[in-house]
Amino acid sequence: MHIFANPARFLSIARPATPWLFWTGLVVLLAGCACGLFLTPADYLQGDSVRILYVHVPAAWLGMGGWSGIAIAAIMQMVWRHPLAAIAGRAIAVPGALFTAICLASGSIWGRPTWGTWWEWDGRMTSMLVLLFLYIGYIALARASAASGQSGGVSRVTAIFALVGAVNLPIINRSVVWWNSLHQGPSITMRGSTIDMAILWPLGLTLLGFTFWFAAIVLMRMRAILAETKVEARMQRMARDAAVGERVPA
Amino acid sequence: MNHWPFIIAAYGVTIAGVLGLSVVSWRAMRSAEARADAMKRDR
């Protein structure tokens, strides 16, 4: 990771990687969605609504994966003072919040035909909603610290908030085991899947496609923050030079 | 119950959200990098 500590080196990799990730992600995603919508059979119990799985599950994983990335960036910022870690944390926050919101929305839409309700205050849905609020809090803190001159990064308080918020991740993961829930139990674990392969296989494609898109959005946002930081630093230098010039007697 | 309106709504929300954020992020990146390049040229 320290190899990317130099922004110029990071940009030399990020510039070609951004369009590649975006377009590859789009192709893989379209293929996965098409297969999930038209090639897989309907579930014997849930019927066609099971097809929502192909967008809901990647959104949930990326919502949680995004916060994991923010927490790792916070550790790198505080322990190694990695110059790009805080910028990466800021860049991940908005797409992470978006995927969490998509997970909640698609889950709610899926719940109506399957459970007969749009929403239930159970462990899984409530802890996922808490994750969305954590993202909103992080975005607000990161913006405030960027406005107070953290040169594109986030303050120490924001990084600590990210680490404290990571406590919610195992709660989300174990919520369907710890509490009674309308939500099904863990169906994809390290030991395998309880979902039949006839339904499961397009999930790999949509997961890969969404992950590529997530990465492309994060790179775009990091590049934007780096460019804005460069402009800001240059303007501050110009203002300082102008102030010094005014003080020098003619 | 016909499930397809729910499926279309779930996919619609997802694609609109991700595509919208991609466009916003791309435009922000392009304008920020253009400003940085213009400043470098003016130096």
From TrEMBL, chain A:
One of its GO terms (biological process) is cytochrome complex assembly. It is found in: Cell inner membrane; Membrane. InterPro entries: Cyt_c_assembly (IPR002541), Cyt_c_biogenesis_CcmC (IPR003557), Cyt_c_biogenesis_CcsA/CcmC (IPR045062). It holds the Pfam family Cytochrom_C_asm. GO terms for molecular function: heme binding; heme transmembrane transporter activity. Residues 28-183 form the Cytochrome c assembly protein domain. It is a multi-pass membrane protein. One of its GO terms (cellular component) is plasma membrane. Its main location: membrane. The chain crosses the membrane at residues 20-39, 59-80, 92-111, 123-141, 153-172, 199-220. Keywords: Cell inner membrane, Cell membrane, Cytochrome c-type biogenesis, Membrane, Transmembrane, Transmembrane helix, Transport. Required for the export of heme to the periplasm for the biogenesis of c-type cytochromes. Belongs to the CcmC/CycZ/HelC family. This is Heme exporter protein C. It comes from Sphingobium subterraneum.
From TrEMBL, chain B:
Signal peptide: none annotated. It is a single-pass membrane protein. It comes from Sphingobium subterraneum. This is Heme exporter protein D. GO terms for cellular component: plasma membrane. It is found in: Cell inner membrane. It holds the Pfam family CcmD. The keyword Ribonucleoprotein does not apply. Belongs to the CcmD/CycX/HelD family.
